[in-house]
Write a structure and sequence with these properties.
172 residues; 2 domains; two-stranded antiparallel ribbon; 44% helix
Amino acid sequence: MALRRGEKGILIAIAAVVLIYMAGRAYNVEEHPPSQDPGIPFYSTASHEVAVKATDIIRRENCRDCHTLWATTTLMQFVPSPPLDGIGSLHDEQWFYRYFSSKDPQSIIPSRLKKKYRMPSYADLPEHERRLLANYMASLKVKDWYLEEVKKKEYEKLTGHPMVDTGKDSSR
């Protein structure tokens, strides 16, 4: 099979580009070892049963309309409320139960979001569902190296002000 005019030149150019690319990658691997990936910072301590039941409630109540959980977002995707990943490292189970039982969640965490995006009250959910959600939310942990960044972002997103480190534990 004979190559048409110009095809031989195109193949040589493609081969040259591939060789240059491979040589560049080999250089980068030798000269610049990759930085160690600290891994995914989020995890859950919930049992499988609690996770399944809580996820069913989260789905039924449309929590993911405003929150993300175990997901990434793109620049084109707007989620107005804080992600739930790692939120159990910020508050304990009692705090979540009190929050889900409040007729006015904004009395616990003031929000600068428009009313339609503010956390609704779940005080009318059956007590066992509020306790289940509280247990699950408290189980959503974040590794220590990532915790401070999560605290700052949650505070700024909800209040519109940068978090000032006072050295006190304000999570309870």
